[in-house]
Design brief:
By secondary structure, this protein is of the alpha+beta class. It has one domain. It is about 35% helix and about 20% strand. It has six helices and ten strands, in the order αβαββαβββββαββαα. It has a five-stranded mixed sheet. A three-stranded antiparallel sheet has the order 8-10-9. A two-stranded antiparallel sheet has the order 3-7. The N and C termini lie far apart (about 60 Å).
Length: about 220
């Protein structure tokens, strides 16, 4: 048996944890590089720092980084305390199509919400496996249409406004809930069910208020 100090979980606790996308990140996901690609804010710098990548020709961000900052400003000030970055991140290269749509990452002085772009054709591939009812319910609640074609599941939003609400009310506020939970430590990170329930409840309570910052397109 390995000593506790030699286990991968020790490394994970040292270099940062991810919530929202999955309970325990795999080393192949390059978690350490994700955390360390963001530098801690310099003393006195205003936070959160806003970062928006070029998403590539096949993808786009449904909301602008400024809209996420505006959404955050609609919420009680304490919710943003300790949040260092909001990052609209370009999706990594081919072979990683089934990334989480959003992540909360922390470690080495960084506490960041990361959101990934959406396909420009509006059709997001969800893989071959049947979706958990909790995931399907979230899409349907915002007007998403979940269907199976040629052995693969996908979701599409008929209206761009519905997709934008889904991103802000559900994805962004869910990850913000993980940040608030970590910063105030309501539940142990080992209790995955409670951690996810708290983030869902946070998004349900504060998401509609955050979405009032969205401008009409």
């Amino acid at each position: 048996m390995k000593r506790r100090s030699a286990t991968p979980w020790k490394k994970s606790r040292t270099y940062g944890d991810i919530h929202g996308g999955r309970a325990r990140p795999r080393l192949a996901d390059n978690v350490f590089a994700l955390v360390h690609s963001l530098r801690p804010p310099a003393p006195g710098r205003s936070t959160p720092i806003l970062v928006q990548d070029n998403p590539s020709s096949a993808f786009s961000f449904p909301v602008a980084i400024e809209e996420l900052a505006a959404a955050l400003s609609r919420l009680p000030a304490g919710h943003a305390e300790g949040l260092t970055h909001i990052w609209l991140r370009r999706r990594p290269g081919r072979g990683r199509a089934l990334l989480p749509l959003a992540e909360f990452v922390r470690g080495s002085g960084v506490s960041a919400i990361v959101l990934y772009p959406w396909p420009r054709d509006g059709k997001l591939d969800l893989g071959r496996d049947r979706l958990p009812s909790r995931t399907t319910a979230a899409y349907l609640r915002f007007g998403g249409q979940v269907a199976r074609e040629h052995g693969r599941w996908h979701v599409r939003f008929a209206a761009e406004s519905d997709l934008r609400r889904f991103v802000v009310e559900h994805l962004f506020c869910h990850e913000l809930g993980h940040h608030v939970d970590w910063y105030r430590r309501r539940w142990s990170k080992a209790n995955v069910r409670r951690v996810e329930e708290y983030a869902d409840q946070f998004a349900a309570r504060w998401g509609p208020l955050a979405a009032t910052a969205l401008s009409e397109r």
